[in-house]
Structures are given as structure tokens and as C-alpha cells.
């Protein structure tokens, strides 16, 4: 081992950035470990299931409002970080498009809540959950990732999670208070995000008077297919709890959410790692394709090894972990098998996120869109079928099958691309 290189990395800005960013994301990962047992203790598993439905609805609306900003927007900021005019134009154009979509989809979401019986039965909680959409609209993390300002990303994460945890503990005191949990999640994000917006406007000298509506409208046309695929991807990630709730009831949906929260911790970690390293991969590949691919392979390989080690430890401590989440001893026996089955999903997600980085780095969203739409439609049909045949386990089996399909599809596409035959 070259200890000089290791010492150089430890002292480098990249290592400091990773530690700062990692601290913020660690707080992000810890929050469900605090919130979920507390919510189950106060509101029960049925309350947790209802919260999961509201959370999923908000995420689906969020994807439309984000409109590709965390993919193409971040990539364009990262590759033009030294060009003020380009940064200003992208910032104003993307936020203009996001505001148009925020207004449109909030109206559509309210109409959906009051017209669909499944949603109307819990309309107060679902309406309050839409505060999360406003929070995500304000959140400037997509821009901060592009300029690699990890200090502000961490500040937003830590403050938002702190507000969320504190308000839930203070104000969720009775079973019916479950309906406020997602609202506090949104409030916690709005407050630090507003400060982040002010910082960006001042630090990068962005003049809002240079905003041009026609550019935002043009962006809405250009990014539609990519955003549509992201909506399908979000449906793949977040509609299962709705389906479980509809077919199996809120109590089983709560059980699903307990297991899903463990999976989501790893999904969030992988997404965090993806967001941290994605701008650098884009820049490395833009400079030199072969060295960029080697960099991608090295960092993702190390990360994947760490994930597998952590999952192995969790697998052999299933019962204590479920008890920590306030699952009763009788339910621990019932959920252990499903919990261990669910741990296969992060193993596959580690590969999915890594290979997806290359698809976007090489601007291959054409293939991503089609794979995502096909996989999501197949997944939802398969999940409904397996839920009725296998019960709760069917939800996890369906996810495993589709993740394998996605990984294989990504590799097939990448192998066919002349630019990256070396993979």
C-alpha cells in the first residue's frame, strides 16, 4: 500500500468534504431510528402505516416538482462551476420551472385527496403531508451538490432533522397525532432551506431580475421524459406501502414500514454516497474517460464492500433490531423471515446506484427512461400478484426480482456502448 497517497488523501479537501457531508447524512440516517420507535410507541403500527401513505404521496409529488434538477441540473452546475452566467441562468431557470410545477401539482394532489375514497378517508394527514413538497421545492441541495458546497448541505440536513425530531417528540403525544408527523418533516426542511437560498443568492451574486420565463418553459419541455421516468422510479420506491395498505390494511402496512425503514436507511446512505460522488465522476469522465471509469469502479467497489459488511452484521442481529423498533416478541417471530428477506434489497441497490451513475455521467437518460418505466409497471403488477399469493413476503420478493432485472438491463446497455467497452 502507498502510505504517501493515503496520507495525502486524509489531508485533502476531498476527505474533509466527505467527513463534513458524511456527518450531515449520518444525522439524516439516524432520524428514522429515533422517530420510528417513538411513533410506534405513541401511534401504533397502524399509525405508522398511515404516515407511510402520506409520505409516499408527498414523495411522488416531489419528483414532479424536482423535475430532473438532481440529475441534469446538478451535472450542469458541476461541469460549469466556474462560469457565473451559466450558474445564474441554470439556478433561475430550474427554480422557475419548479415553481410552476409546485403550483400545478399541489392543486392536483388536493383534488386527488378529495376525490379518491382511499385517500379521502385520511385527508387531514395527507393534506398536511404536502408541506414536505413545499420543503423540497425550497431545498437548494441540488445546486449545492453541483458546486460541491458540503458545509451548507450538512447544515441544511442537520438543522432540518433536528427540527423534525424535536417537534415530533414535543407535539406527537396521542395516537391521533400521527397526522402531524409528515408536516413537521416538511417544516423542518423549509426553515434551513430558506437560509440556504439566501446564502446562494448572495455568495454567487445571482440576480433574480435576470429570470426569463421562456427558459423555464423550454426546460419543462426538454426534461419531461427524464422526469416521467423519475416519477415511475419514485412509484417503484414509494407506492408499495400504499398497495400494502390497500390490500392488507394499515397494520400490515405498518409492519412493512418497520422493515422498509431499515432498507431505507441503506437506500438513503447509497443515495447520499451517489450524490456526493456523482459530480466528481462527471468531472473525471469529462476530463478522461478511462481514468474516470477507473475512479468510478474504485470508489463504488470500496463503498459496496462496506455496505455488505454492515448488512451481514444486521442479518445476524435481526431479533434485537426488531425489538428496538418496538415490535412485540410475538411479532418478532413473524417478521424475522421477512426482515432478513428485505436485507437482500440493499445488496442489490448497491449495484443499481453504482451503475446508474455511469448511465447519467454518459448522458444516457434515453435508456434509463425506458428501463425505469418498464421495470415499474412490471413491479407494481408483480407485487399485487405476489402480495395476494405470499402475503407481506411477496412485496420483498417482487422488489428483488425487479432489482435484478434493472441491474442486468443497465449492464447490457453499458456493454453495448462503444465508449465504455472496458467495463
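^ C-alpha cells above, recovered residues below v
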Amino acid at each position: 500500500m502507498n502510505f504517501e497517497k493515503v496520507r495525502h488523501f486524509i489531508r485533502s479537501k476531498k476527505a474533509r468534504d466527505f467527513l463534513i457531508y458524511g456527518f450531515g447524512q449520518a444525522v439524516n440516517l439516524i432520524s428514522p431510528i429515533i422517530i420510528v420507535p417513538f411513533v410506534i410507541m405513541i401511534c401504533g403500527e397502524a399509525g405508522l402505516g398511515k404516515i407511510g401513505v402520506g409520505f409516499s404521496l408527498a414523495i411522488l409529488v416531489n419528483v414532479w416538482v424536482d423535475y430532473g434538477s438532481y440529475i441534469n441540473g446538478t451535472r450542469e452546475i458541476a461541469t460549469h462551476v466556474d462560469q457565473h452566467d451559466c450558474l445564474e441562468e441554470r439556478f433561475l431557470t430550474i427554480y422557475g420551472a419548479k415553481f410552476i410545477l409546485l403550483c400545478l401539482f399541489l392543486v392536483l394532489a388536493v383534488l386527488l385527496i378529495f376525490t379518491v375514497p382511499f385517500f379521502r378517508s385520511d385527508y387531514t394527514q395527507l393534506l398536511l403531508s404536502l408541506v414536505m413538497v413545499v420543503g423540497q421545492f425550497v431545498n437548494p441541495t441540488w445546486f449545492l451538490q453541483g458546486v460541491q458546497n458540503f458545509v451548507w448541505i450538512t447544515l441544511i440536513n442537520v438543522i432540518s432533522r433536528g427540527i423534525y425530531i424535536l417537534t415530533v417528540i414535543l407535539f406527537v403525544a396521542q395516537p391521533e397525532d400521527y397526522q402531524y408527523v409528515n408536516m413537521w418533516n416538511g417544516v423542518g426542511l423549509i426553515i434551513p432551506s430558506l437560509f440556504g437560498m439566501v446564502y446562494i443568492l448572495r455568495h454567487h451574486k445571482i440576480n433574480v431580475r435576470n429570470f426569463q420565463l421562456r427558459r423555464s418553459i423550454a426546460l419543462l419541455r426538454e426534461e419531461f421524459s427524464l422526469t416521467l421516468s423519475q416519477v415511475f422510479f419514485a412509484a417503484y420506491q414509494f407506492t408499495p406501502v400504499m398497495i400494502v395498505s390497500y390490500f392488507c390494511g394499515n397494520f400490515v402496512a405498518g409492519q412493512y414500514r418497520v422493515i422498509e425503514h431499515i432498507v431505507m436507511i441503506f437506500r438513503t446512505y447509497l443515495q447520499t454516497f451517489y450524490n456526493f460522488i456523482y459530480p466528481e465522476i462527471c468531472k473525471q469522465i469529462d476530463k478522461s474517460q478511462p481514468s474516470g471509469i477507473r475512479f468510478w469502479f474504485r470508489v463504488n467497489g470500496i463503498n459496496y464492500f462496506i455496505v455488505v459488511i454492515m448488512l451481514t452484521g444486521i442479518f445476524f442481529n435481526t431479533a434485537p433490531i426488531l425489538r428496538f423498533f418496538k415490535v412485540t416478541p410475538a411479532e418478532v417471530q413473524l417478521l424475522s423471515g421477512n426482515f432478513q428477506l428485505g436485507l437482500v434489497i440493499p445488496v442489490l441497490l448497491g449495484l443499481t446506484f453504482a451503475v446508474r451513475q455511469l448511465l447519467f455521467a454518459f448522458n444516457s437518460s434515453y435508456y434509463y427512461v425506458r428501463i425505469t418505466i418498464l421495470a415499474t409497471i412490471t413491479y407494481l403488477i408483480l407485487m399485487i400478484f405476489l402480495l395476494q399469493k405470499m402475503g407481506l413476503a411477496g412485496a420483498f420478493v417482487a422488489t428483488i426480482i425487479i432489482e435484478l432485472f434493472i441491474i442486468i438491463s443497465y449492464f447490457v446497455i453499458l456493454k453495448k456502448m462503444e465508449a465504455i467497452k472496458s467495463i
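DSSP finds 20 helices and no strands in the chain.
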